[in-house]
C-alpha cells in the first residue's frame, strides 16, 4: 500500500514564524518517513497565509476565529482535492503530524482550528487517516518518534 504523511508546515519549514520554529526533529522526521517509504505532503501554514510572520495566534476564543476557520477551509480546498485524487488511486494517509500546543495545527487538540477543519473535510470526502500525532516543541521527542515508527 502506498502511504502519505500530512505534515504541518513548520515541521519542514522553520522560517514560517518569528522567532523561527524549532527544526530540531526535521531531519529525523524526513529520514524516518523516507526509510518507511512514506511520502510527505506539507500542509499550508494558515497563520502565515492569513496574517504574516509576526503575528499573534488565533485561538477558538478569538473574535476572528469564525472568519479564520472559514479561511482555513478555503486554504485547504486544494489539499482536499489532492487527497481525493490520491485516495482514488489507492494512496492512503498514514497519519497527520501536527504541532504540540498549536491553536491551529495541533492534531491532539480537537479545537485547533485548521486541524479541526482538515479532519472535518477529510471525513466529508471519505478520506480515512491513520494516526494523529503532535511533534513536541520541547524535550527529546522519544514518544513522538516511537509513535511515528508505528506508521
Describe the structure.
The model has no long low-confidence stretch (mean pLDDT 94). Helix 5 (113-124) links the parallel strand 3 and strand 4 (129-135). The longest helix is centred in the middle third of the chain and has 24 residues, at 65-88. The chain is an alpha/beta fold and 151 residues long. It starts with a strand and ends with a helix. The chain has helices at 9-12, 26-35, 46-50, 65-88, 113-124, 142-149; strands at 2-7, 38-42, 91-99, 129-135. The protein has a 4-stranded parallel β-sheet with strand order 2-1-3-4, sandwiched between helices. The chain has 6 helices and 4 strands; from the N terminus they run E-H-H-E-H-H-E-H-E-H.
Can you give me a brief rundown of this structure?
This protein is α/β, with parallel strands linked by helices.
Number of helical elements: 6
Poorly predicted spans:
none
The gyration radius over C-alpha positions equals: 15 Å
Q: Compute the average pLDDT.
A: 94
Task: Please give the alpha-carbon distance between the first and last residues.
Answer: 12 Å
What is the beta-strand fraction? 15-25%
Give a quick account of the main beta sheet: strands, pairing sense, barrel closure.
4 strands, parallel
Structural class: alpha/beta
Q: Strands of the largest sheet, in order across it?
A: 2-1-3-4
| Residues in helix, % | 40-55%
Please report the total strand number as a whole number: 4
What is the ordering of alpha helices and beta strands?
Answer: EHHEHHEHEH
Shape: globular
